[in-house]
What does this fold into?
Amino acid sequence: MDKILNNSLYKTWESHWINEKKMTLPGRILTKARLKALKKIILSLSIQNAIDVGCGLGHLLQIFKDADIHYLGIDVSQKAVMTCKEKGLNAKIGKLEEEKSSYDLVASEGMLEHFLNFEPYVKDLIRISSLYILLMQPNHDSFMGRTLVYLARTVRGDKIVFEYNYRMKDYIEIFEKNGCVCIKNEPVFFDTSRLLLFKKNN
Ligand SMILES: C[S@@+](CC[C@H](N)C(=O)[O-])C[C@H]1O[C@@H](n2cnc3c(N)ncnc32)[C@H](O)[C@@H]1O
It folds into this structure.
C-alpha cells in the first residue's frame, strides 16, 4: 500500500517540477533564510562528504560545492536532476530507499512531511549516514508556520504538493527511537521552519 501511495507521490513531484513557475517573493525570502541557516550549520561541522536527499533544484548542493565538500544530490524527479546538472551540480536520479553508499552528513529539506508514514524514510536516512542527519522541516505548530500553509493552500489550492502537519516532536521521537540524538532544534524565519540536527549513537 505504502509503495503504491509513494509511486503516485513521485509522479506528483515530477509534474510539480515540470510545471514549476518562478518563485514568488515570499518564497524567495523563505528559501534564502532556510539556506542561510543550513549553511551556518554545515560550515560548523567537521565532515568530508555529504548527500542531499530530495535535492530538488539544487540550492543545498550549491552550498556543499562552494564549501568544497564532496557531495551528491539525489532526487526521484528527472526534471529536478536535469536542472541541477544544467547548473553544474553533481546530482543523479535516485530513491533514498535504494541508495547504497554512506555519507558523513545526510541532509534533507522538505521531503519527509509529504509521506503518510515517514518512519521508513527516517530509517533509510539513518542507514546511509555515518555521523549526522540534517533536516529542514516546516513548522505547522508555530503561528507563522500555520498561517503560511493556510495562505499557500488558499492561493495555490491543489497545485501545492500536500504536506502532513507533523510536529517537530514527531520527527525527534522517531529519530531517537531509531538510535539518534537531536543535537540542534533551531527556529528559522519566525519559526516557519525548524532546522533539526541529529547525531547517530554509533
Ligand atoms: C519539497 S521538495 C524539496 C526540494 C529541495 N530539497 C528544496 O528544499 O528546495 C522534495 C523533493 O524530494 C524528492 N523526493 C521525494 N521522495 C524521494 C525519495 N524517496 N528519494 C529521493 N528524492 C525524493 C522530490 O522529488 C522533491 O524534489
User: Anything to note?
Assistant: DSSP finds seven helices and seven strands in the chain.
